[in-house]
Amino acid sequence: MNGIPVITAKKSGQTVVRATATRAGFPDETAYFLLYVVDGSMLSNTYLTAIGSIPDADRQNPVIVEGLTQAGELVITAASSEKPTPVNGQLVITPELIERLAGNASKTKLAVKQALSENRIALARELIVNGEILPSSGQNEYIFKLYKDSLVGRKDIDYITIHAGDAKLVLNVATADRLFDSRTVIVIRLVKANNGGFHVQFLDAQGQELPNVSSNIMLILPANQTNATHTSVFYSNGKKAQPIGGKFNPSQNGMEAEINRSGTYFVGENPKSFPDVDDRDPELQQAVQFLASKGIVTGKDNGNFEPDSLLTRAEFTAMLVRAFYALDETATESFSDVHPPQWHHPYIASSEKKHIVEGYPDGTFKPDKTISREEMTAIGARYLHEKKHYYYPANPEDYLKQFVDKETISNWAKPTMSLAVKQHLINVPANKRINAREAVTRGEAARMLYRLYLLL
After folding, report:
1. Cβ proximity of 220 and 253 under 8 Å
2. Residue 340 main-chain phi, psi, to 5 deg
């Protein structure tokens, strides 16, 4: 678990393990796991057997459904892994290689979905297909040559994970067209740095360094979860290092962050705290510390976070741009009320370019205007839908009827609000009032963004 052996198998078979999970702001939960000890080639059969062992009463439990979804995705990944031979020191990602990975993945995905359906387990989201490329390990330098026609236009695979020793690159196939832009080839060079991180270079077909690429690539750096709350991925281009976010992924044993610039990336501690959240509930404390350590939220000039202050559109846009790794310092904006050197200019310009927060029909952005609860929730839920393929509930009223003031929810916001309730991006408060069109606070935004971050 997280790289630490907790069970040693003596022989093939199965056993039941009892475990208690702790998470800030939530009561401890005890669960029982049925573990199968098998040969790697039996992974798919083991998964199918495990599905059949789920008690009927648990087959619609959201936690169990998500666990089976993630396990099914691991089965698909295992079936679509390949170790190609380098060509002139480069690992070349050809259309033929991707075709083989996608073909194996598609067959396994169909089998997983069929098994879930036969056992009356309804998925809350689409299964994500990830193919893996495994070059030889133990090197200090890795060079990957990507061809545009290998990735663009594919609908049968979502991600390609390329291993580089103890680091990994994850390519989002859906954004490959933007990644390559007008280029037909991109070369990525990773060199292990002395601080345990990696120097990443993006190159064109002629070997010239590109300062940045047009779409993000996920980089996973080795790390442990000893203090993931205060840990961040840092970026340096020879100047002062800056935190850029990152989330610990226990299944990968590493910190994952999205990158688009050539430079050095490493994992480091960056603890942040604010005295005015010390007396708040544990989850809010955790959320603010977690997001602040990664540079996603910042305090005020007085050293406090001010969780009860109303959130402005500029503040929320800056949070989202940082959280979604969308900052583009070359971006320009078209709003009549946003100009440099205002602090929020680069964030609003990046937001406009990446279509994160929209402006108003009159050509303004209104950076100091507050943001409503349904607007905040809609942005979070849409990102969950687009990034992790969660389905919008077909029956939104089943989730919204919990609010005694559900009539305050605008019609346009009902699908996103119902998804947010279903996936616990927001709570149903004790008074059961959503106050959908009222302004939200900085603390509320931090809490929702923290929960969203953990789900992505």
Report:
1. no
2. -70, 150
Backbone angles phi, psi at 99, to 5 degrees: -60, -40
- Mean pLDDT in the chain? 87
Q: Is the pLDDT of residue 286 over 50?
A: yes
Q: Name 363's Cβ contacts closer than 8 Å, sequence gap at least 6.
A: 334, 335, 336
CATH number of this structure's domain 76-269, picked from the four choices 2.60.220, 2.40.10, 2.30.30, 2.40.290: 2.60.220
The structure tokens 């936690």 sit at 63
210 with 188: CB under 8 angstroms? no
173/170 Cα distance (integer angstroms): 9
pLDDT of residue 35: 56
Conformational region of residue 139, where left means phi above 0, alpha means psi within -120 to 50, and beta covers everything else: beta
Strands 141-147 and 91-93: parallel
Type and span of the H or E element at 448? helix 442-455
Q: Tell me the domain boundaries of the chain.
A: 76-269, 275-455
Residue 71 has pLDDT above 70, yes or no: yes
Alpha helix ranges (H) inside 80-171: 95-118, 148-151
Residue 294 CA: distances (Å) to CA of 29, 51, 197, 268 = 28, 38, 17, 10
Q: With 70 as the cut, is the pLDDT of residue 14 above it?
A: no
Strand partners of residue 31: 19
Q: Which two tokens stand for residue 376?
A: 């905040």
- Pull the structure tokens for residue 205: 């077909």
Alpha helices in 239-372 (DSSP H): 282-293, 313-323, 345-354
Percent of the chain clearing pLDDT 70 (strictly above): 89
Positive/negative CA dihedral, 399, 404, 405, 411: positive
Closest CA to 126 of 417, 420, 391, 381: 391
| DSSP summary character for residue 236 | E
Q: Inform me whether the pLDDT recorded for 2 exceeds 60.
A: no
Full-model pTM: 0.79
What is the number of helices (H) and of strands (E) in the chain? 12, 17
**Which H helix or E strand runs over 62?**
helix 62-79
Task: Report how far residue 203's alpha carbon sits from residue 70's, in angstroms, rounded to the nearest whole number.
Answer: 34
Residues 272, 274, 279, 285, CA torsion sign: negative
Note the pLDDT tens digit of each residue in 182-241: 899 999 999 998 878 899 999 999 999 998 888 899 999 988 765 677 889 999 988 889
Q: Indicate the range of 134-138, 305-309, 404-408 predicted with least confidence.
A: 134-138
